[in-house]
Amino acid sequence: MSDTSDTSDFDSETESERIGLEHGAGGEATRKLVAETLASGFGDPEDAIVGLTGMDDGAVIPVGEENLVLTTDSHVIDPPFFPGGDIGRLAVSGTVNDLAVMGATDVRALTSAMVIEANYPVAKLERIADSMAATCEEANAAVVTGDTKVMGNGEIDGIVINTAGVGVAPHVTPDSAVEPNDVILLTDSIGEHGISLLAEREGIEFGSDLASDVKPLNDLLARALEVGGKNIKTMKDATRMGLAGALNEIAEKSGVGIEIREERVPVTSDVKGAGEMLGLDPFQIANEGVAVLAVAPKSAENVLDELREHPKGENAAAIGKGIDDHHGRVVLDTGIGSRYLREPASEPAPRIC
Question: Positions of the region Disordered (predicted)?
Answer without folding.
Answer: 1-26
